[in-house]
């Protein structure tokens, strides 16, 4: 372990590291991530980063909240990017902490471009995206050779907050598994589009909320029932929408719920 840790580069003053915090469980952080948290002078973090992860920072680290939660008051992306530049120019070791992975619907690319334009040294530390880790904790393989050899990640809203103008017809007809980030607000429109372009009304759908945390909830439904079932369930964002027959494997492979049940009832007693 010491040999591995010794190869982690120093976090130099005047630089910015863009770090993915993963979907929620602190155990999914990389070694680079932990080293960065312990070295940073200032941490600029998003709303979905857990308290447990924030507590891994060094004793002198300043925590600065940047918001960035769908439907909630948030700092503008331009302001956040410029704040990173200003802090780095003050000679700080600036850690920009984002849920999931910085480059997967995380706007890390926009921040990196601003840093590059201002000659600020930066490093990107990937994180486990919720579209991968969240599905694994829900007992849903992203790919399975009996069901699919391809999958598509798509955002549920664009920069204006509306349904993105992607080619829904090609996605519906060409991708056996569709993982939709930040799509709860527009779930009715999205499911109608997919069915309108030929997806079966009975196709399995999973909604995964608070993935990888002790609050995780998984709702299984179908394309035609998804909107009503979500409304009845009371599930709220952050949540993923998964469309495809890999969802059928959830009930067989849901190791996370089984593990939680064993911890809550270690004797195996039943009510």
From TrEMBL:
It comes from the Bacteria. Keywords: Methyltransferase, Porphyrin biosynthesis, S-adenosyl-L-methionine, Transferase. The keyword Transferase applies. Pathway: Porphyrin-containing compound metabolism; siroheme biosynthesis; precorrin-2 from uroporphyrinogen III: step 1/1. Its EC number is 2.1.1.107. Pfam families: TP_methylase (PF00590). PROSITE patterns: SUMT_2. The keyword Magnesium does not apply. Residues 16-225 form the Tetrapyrrole methylase domain. InterPro entries: 4pyrrol_Mease, 4pyrrol_Methylase_sf, 4pyrrole_Mease_sub1, 4pyrrole_Mease_sub2, CobA/CysG_C, Siro_Cobalamin_biosynth, Uropor_MeTrfase_CS. NCBIfam families: cobA_cysG_Cterm, PRK06136.1. Belongs to the precorrin methyltransferase family. This is uroporphyrinogen-III C-methyltransferase. It comes from Sneathiella chinensis. The lineage of its organism: Bacteria, Pseudomonadati, Pseudomonadota, Alphaproteobacteria, Sneathiellales.
